Amino acid sequence: MKKVGLLAVAILLMHHANSQTVEKVGEPVEWVNTLMGTDSKVSLSNGNTYPAIALPWGMNFWMPQTGAMGDGWAYQYSADKIRGFKQTHQPSPWINDYGQFAIMPVTGSVKFDQKKRASWFSHKSEITKPYYYSVYLADADVTTEITPTERAAQLRFTYPTSDSSFVVVDAFDKGSYVKIIPEEKKIIGYTTKNSGGVPANFKNYFVIYFDKPFTVTYTWHDSVLVAGKLEMQSNHSGAVVGFKTVRGEKVTAKTASSFISYDQAELNLQKEIGNDNFDVTKTKAKDTWNKELGRLAVQGGTPEQVRTFYSSLYRVLLFPRKFYEINAKNEVVHYSPYNGQVLPGYMFTDNGFWDTFRAVHPFFTLMYPSLTSHIMEGLANAYKESGWLPEWASPGHRDCMIGSNSASLIADAYIKGIRGYDINTLWEAVLKNSENEGPLTSVGRKGVKYYNTLGYVPYDVDINENTARTLEYAYDDFTILQLAKALNKPAAEQERFAKRSQNFRNVFDPETKLMRGKNKDGKFQVPFNPFKWGDAFTEGNSWHYTWSVFHDVNALSNLMGGKEQFVQMLDSVFKMPPVFDDSYYGGVIHEIREMQIMNMGQYAHGNQPIQHMIYLYNYAGQPWKTQYWIRQVMDRLYKPTPDGYCGDEDNGQTSAWYVFSAMGFYPVCPGTPQYVFGTPLFTKLTMTLEDGKKMVIEAPANNEKNLYVQSAALNGKNYTKNWISHQDLQNGGKLIFHMGANPAKNKGTNPADFPYSYSTAVK
Question: Which one-letter DSSP state was computed for residue 68?
Fold first, then answer.
């Protein structure tokens, strides 16, 4: 009896621990795990993230560097040695880095080579927060701490007793320079190392001030240490400074950089750190993160859900990067990554719109309209400086991904009332995109002449990912149409984009009810394997891309034979086995593997094309299936752990899906002022909008079992629609979801309550 009693108590305690909820989040930044997604590799991405020590949208990030110089996987959770602490601008391991240099403490002897200076470390002696990082370097017996500002940072090293304590500065290869200025306890330098997308005069200028005089100085190049020389310019330059220390002595380095000049780097340091000590900078950084993360205050979720939510929100707020600086006259200026000039105005970078048009930028239009206005000005500046809108910038144009989804960002911002930028220049830019190929395949529209004459990009004209391009161009043309209407453009112009917005019909195969490559002669390509990745599609197969008719889901439903058939097709995604054809790639790419191992059939949440698909049940009168599958994805595919994502996180997009879904809605079609309902994750979420208004989302009975919405009320009135408007959210107020354990199969079935579709909207 005693053993049975103890077992019962143990089970009760376990149940209590699992059902524990968080009723108040005091400091949201303390719930962030910056290591979420870092247990990744080339063959399998659990996020492909690194622990960014940064402020929201900061120009510079810092990170512990475990990978070799130039390795895109610069921090891997599985690594056991740190080579340095790197200033980084890397948006993705696939895009890699630029504007990078590293700082590393060593002791005992002068070890500057990246392998020899590397030190063993343990995650058990690592503190990882957005505003603060600390780690014990075992081989050096040194603890390193870092805290950031937007363009500067402080590093603090706690040394042992030694007459041979050093700091190594590594300006990296591909052309770099360092200079030690002992009388100022200072090192300056520049790095040119990049992965493309930069003008010929690209440099990242850095300054580093120490609070302790140097007793020894060296410079080095490649593998050669040089004594008595304070300046070095070479392929791979670096510096070493040393001092005597006693155990527990802290040496602090204040550093900043600029893409403009040394003087601007000095100014950035003075403006953002000045006389602040390390702890003051740390407190300011912490306060900044708490302010921004606190704009969404949650309660009533499990500790794991709260950690996942704020870890995801942290990722949403990192990119795009502020690629501008404030000059001595307090003016906003930027080094142009397009033409190499220093010019007035805003500039942002490190963003692939193929990923982020879906949810990241709609999140900003909802929560950060002033930021969105600045991003729009940055897009106009990019167009004026390069002749093209960026689609994947890092820091300038990069040849990556497809579509001309900058149109989606621009239309969505304008339609939602955001102003303060040159919309006429942006209109000129989207028109140019719609008629021209660019200097890179990712810029403008590859295959545009075929698309504009035939209504699709053919399969057999040596343009890869042709059907995916057709679908994305058609959606982008819809957003241009919406912008044309808002700007009162001529009817003929509007009609052109209205017609092109329906081009998705040209690649729909009625026999298979799927999108399919079509040859130039109008015949569908054969043989057709809907499980074949790549080829006609981008990082996915036909089952993933068929749903990319964001703006006319009703038309897609009709093409499939009506609502019943449409729902059966949606259901099939989850029912089919995760089979695949990888012949286009000649092997299994990581996106395929991530779908295969998640045990959700053909649903490939680890990549972007299908991420909105779960919400489409709302367009067919079965929102309860949306609710079921959303909770399945949130519970099974996200964890606040190093392996916490189910594929590439991608500049906030996979995180933004979670953040929006936790709020209870999602922007299926940017360019329309609607958010489609799902199921809220928390019992209460309070949105603090930019103007101070609050929208409170409550689901009092919400829990693991009560995931189905029974009814909803907006500001005290019964609300039957399957969506909510941007304006209703902006007005503030209260949205209440009444939750239950069983599907409410009579809710949301009236076509009048379905979300926007172009073919059913009042023209």
Answer: P
Residue given tokens 């693991």 in the structure block: 704
The alpha helices in 513-637, defined as continuous H runs, are 542-545, 553-559, 563-575, 590-597, 623-637
443 close to 388: Cβ distance less than 8 angstroms:
yes
pLDDT digits (tens, 9 = 90+) for 482-534: 999 999 999 999 999 999 999 999 999 999 999 999 999 999 999 999 999 99
d(C-alpha 513, C-alpha 523), whole Å:
15
Place 761 in a pLDDT band, splitting at 50, 70 and 90.
Answer: confident
Q: Give the end-to-end CA distance of the chain in Å, rounded to a whole number.
A: 74
- Within 13 A of 535's CA, how many CA atoms are on the CB side? 23
Answer whether residue 3 shows pLDDT above 80. Answer: no
Q: Measuring CA to CA, which residue among 423, 447, 424, 425 is closest to residue 435? A: 447
Matching residue, tokens 């906030």 = 652
**DSSP codes joined into one string, 168-236:** EEE--SSSEEEEEEGGGTEEEEEE---SS---TT--EEEEEEESS--SEEEEEETTEEEES--EEEESS
pLDDT digits (tens, 9 = 90+) for 713-758: 999 999 999 999 999 999 999 999 999 999 999 999 999 999 999 9
Q: How many helices (H) and strands (E) in the chain?
A: 19, 36
Q: Which of 120, 123, 26 is nearest to 641 (CA)?
A: 123
- Alpha carbons within 13 angstroms on the beta-carbon side of residue 644 total 29
Residue with tokens 């019943």: 564
- Alpha-carbon span 267 to 273, nearest angstrom: 10
What are the pLDDT digits (tens) for 186-232?
999 999 999 999 999 999 999 999 999 999 999 999 999 999 899 99
Cβ neighbours, 10 Å, residue 725: 15
Q: What is the mean pLDDT of the chain?
A: 96
Distance CA 63, CA 123 (A): 14
Residue 527: CB partners within 8 Å, gap ≥ 6? none
**Residue of 469, 426, 506, 606 lying closest to 47 (CA atoms):** 606
Segment 462-474, tens digit of pLDDT: 999 999 999 999 9
**395 CA to centre of own chain:** 15
Residue 281 carries which side chain, given as an amino acid letter?
A: T
CA distances from 135 to 82, 103, 125, 145 (A): 10, 14, 6, 7
Q: Which amino acid is at 577?
A: P
Residue whose C-alpha is closest to residue 395's, from 206, 200, 194: 194
d(CA 60, CA 272): 12
- The CA distance from 640 to 271, in Å, is 35
Ramachandran region of residue 401, left (φ > 0), alpha (ψ -120 to 50) or beta?
left
Burial 421-441 (b: 16+ CB within 10 A, else e): bbbeebbebbbbbbeeebebb
State the angle between helix axes of 369-386 and 423-435 in degrees (0 to 180), rounded to the nearest 10.
60
Per-residue pLDDT reduced to its tens digit, 656-685: 999 999 999 999 999 999 999 999 999 999
Number of Cβ within 10 Å of residue 590's Cβ equals 21
CA dist., res. 551 & res. 101, Å (int):
45
- What is the tens place of the pLDDT at every residue in 616-662? 999 999 999 999 999 999 999 999 999 999 999 999 999 999 999 99
Contact 350, 394 (CB under 8 A): yes
The amino acid at 30: E
CB 515 within 8 A of CB 467: yes
